[in-house]
Hints:
Strand content of chain B: under 5%
CATH class of chain A: Alpha Beta
Number of strands of chain B: 2
Structural class of chain A: alpha/beta
Radius of gyration of chain B: 28 Å
Strand content of chain A: 15-25%
CATH architecture of the domain at 96-297 and 319-333 in chain B: Orthogonal Bundle
CATH class of the domain at 96-297 and 319-333 in chain B: Mainly Alpha
Strand order of the largest sheet of chain A: 6-7-8-3-9-10
Oligomer: heterodimer
Low-confidence stretches of chain B: none
Mean pLDDT of chain A: 83
Structural class of chain B: mainly alpha
CATH topology of chain A: Rossmann fold
Distance between the termini of chain B: 64 Å
Order of helices and strands of chain B: HHEEHHHHHHHHH
Low-confidence stretches of chain A: 1-37, 51-56
Distance between the termini of chain A: 24 Å
Amino acid sequence: xxxxxxxxxxxxxxxxxxxxxxxxxxxxxxxxxxxxxxxxxxxxxxxxxxxxxxxxxxxxxxxxxxxxxxxxxxxxxxxxxxxxxxxxxxxxxxxxxxxxxxxxxxxxxxxxxxxxxxxxxxxxxxxxxxxxxxxxxxxxxxxxxxxxxxxxxxxxxxxxxxxxxxxxxxxxxxxxxxxxxxxxxxxxxxxxxxxxxxxxxxxxxxxxxxxxxxxxxxxxxxxxxxxxxxxxxxxxxxxxxxxxxxxxxxxxxxxxxxxxxxxxxxxxxxxxxxxxxxxxxxxxxxxxxxxxxxxxxxxxxxxxxxxxx
Amino acid sequence: xxxxxxxxxxxxxxxxxxxxxxxxxxxxxxxxxxxxxxxxxxxxxxxxxxxxxxxxxxxxxxxxxxxxxxxxxxxxxxxxxxxxxxxxxxxxxxxxxxxxxxxxxxxxxxxxxxxxxxxxxxxxxxxxxxxxxxxxxxxxxxxxxxxxxxxxxxxxxxxxxxxxxxxxxxxxxxxxxxxxxxxxxxxxxxxxxxxxxxxxxxxxxxxxxxxxxxxxxxxxxxxxxxxxxxxxxxxxxxxxxxxxxxxxxxxxxxxxxxxxxxxxxxxxxxxxxxxxxxxxxxxxxxxxxxxxxxxxxxxxxxxxxxxxxxxxxxxxxxxxxxxxxxxxxxxxxxx
Lengths: 309, 335
């Protein structure tokens, strides 16, 4: 049995961020054009939301295991997600990070033969507790998928509000909500004049931001993102990364990414997953600065320096 | 120093002359030629058969159309005439066309909700172990000969259906289609419609189930991730995606219902009077007209039956054409 001590330490609270985030992000961008920034320096230059850390934020996993039929895909992951932070999950393909993400809002169980063990606790309640209304769980823990998937039968506006319809929620100020969510997703200016157009008429990056807006409309406490930029061009990726950083001010974001630069750019904490032929495990977790500058585990170091994966 | 500008002009400069388009050909191998011949003949065979049937029916029935013209379609009489008294023969299938439409529509209205519900149940609600047996059972329904459905409809269903019809008449009798000219409930279009509806359930179910199973998984998951219940997910994702398939299945079912012969012949009371009171014992459809008269008719009446067959043939083709159109129009949305 592998014991993993993965409690995130509420460290570095002295790192106080005074400047608006977007400005420092721009500076960061300029420096990148001048020199090829190493992951560590990218991680170091990105402003963090550590100062907002409040212990016991209310979202954590305890000893989570996952199976597909007889295949043990994920072993013993315990992780705490502080409020108002972005946590990136990195690791090579097949290491169980996406599986882990999908156990967090009970999407894992859609796969036939899927099973899990352990606890996922939101606001003090185990979301796998018998008798839980799973639809309410997914309202609190939203998800953005790898491939942009707006509903093609709905207009842009309808897409944003689709969650209300799907979850049968009543709201009076729908127009306001639509604008607010599209603004938070960084899409409002591009679509405000054509909310009646179909979602499919947008570009891939816009579609993905529409999906983010859609996820935000049901007011989730946590937003899970499964490689949200892997199907997008660099420009769209940048826009979505900005969006994610802005979201981190108000909700918990957990993002799976294959792009380590991206993890270094946008996340406050980083978890490294790895499978050594057996089930995937959480090898190391820490602040993004630490993981990319002085990882404690040799395997983490090998991975982030590109020696494998 | 550059002396001549010409030498710097790249070779790819556009000369301004548009060349003739080249023919793109390839020489097929022998084996390819053989295979092409086989599949081509296969493809054309059905076309030729269809064409020959249409030609045969047209030739055989041309005298009927020449004599009665449009009255053959709009007329409500069917008699061979009487050579002794000199009464002329009169053939008109208007009542049968109306009957065909009425019975098919009743059948479709009964079959469509059941089929869509069944397809949704199999795809989204049924436990894993039940899915396959249920699918096979429904496909088996299509294999039961229609004469069996007819006998079942006559002997088993009719007593119950008469009771339902009485209820409908009693409580919804103010609706014109539920009115009764006289109190005869047996062998009505309503009962025939139920039988036909049950007969077309398998085909509509099979098609809608197939379409529903093609709904992109990412859209289904997107809906669930937004806190959808199964039903709201189905309404927002599955039904918009499957609408064209449902429409197509319904049209195919309608086509089959219109051509249905033996079951209707057994269940329905054949009368050459247009009847829109679906609970009343009077009706008929073109196909059952043909099968009921075919054995005892000669010469001119036989030709009239051929003409009726041609009309049914054309109407069925039209329905199929229409279904194609509907499928294409609805397919553009929701996909």
